[in-house]
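Have a think about this chain, tokens included, and walk me through the fold.
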Amino acid sequence: MNILTFDIEEWFHSHLDPKYTGKENWSNFEVRIYRNMELIHRALKESNTKATFFCIGWIARKHPDVIKEIDRLGYEIGTHSDMHEMAHTLSPTQFKNDFERSIKSIEDLTGKKIRSYRAPGFSITNKNLWAFDTLIENGITVDCSIFPASRDFGGLENFGSNTPCIINYKGVELREFPMNFVSVYSKKICFSGGGYFRFIPYNYIKKFTNESEYVMAYFHPRDFDPGQPFLWSLPVGRKFKSYVGLKKAFGKFQNYLNEFEFLDIAQAEELIDWDNVKRVNLSDE
């Protein structure tokens, strides 16, 4: 089962640079999301592929036509937070306010209930499992935030599942579609999205996908934009992750769609026997 998702945000939303993370500056930056969304829509149409789009509330308010077009084309929409802040950097109250604003901004445009969520940077950790309280209270039934390996922004390395499962948190169940990985020399390697997809040679991506029973592919509009501004002030590691492989990324992505079949989350849900998947108990203790 291969699932295709997109995190809909502008090119500057992932950069850890005060000049770009400062919300007061966002409206001053070059707008590139329309061109990048056209590429995505074209690729999906040509390959007749469904996908789920996790959108941030800021995009819904600043560029409502982006969200309306996703909805008009019949794609499933979830939320990716409101202001793309890492969940583990927020207090429970801040997280709740951000999340609820994102829901309202998107639902006001589409008139449809948001039922799925992905945390920016997969930033759910053992220290902010309380985030599930807000998700459950707001009717979220599907989460895609768990990164079952270590990473800069979060990760639950001992989560215990690399495939769709059910989270039990405080007696309430939530369907989870975690990120996938392959084990290479005992190291967990993610390959199916973002900088991982751009960096890893396509032959390996193809091999890993063929060997995986479950793949959660995720991309951002900026992943296919070699013309985006280059931020020289970023740390070397972040610079590499942000810009590696941009020139060839869209071609790789088209090959990926042509060689493999993908589902959106709603389609995948229908195919899974949820009574027989693994159950993972999470606790704040």
In short: The radius of gyration is 18 Å. The mean pLDDT is 91.
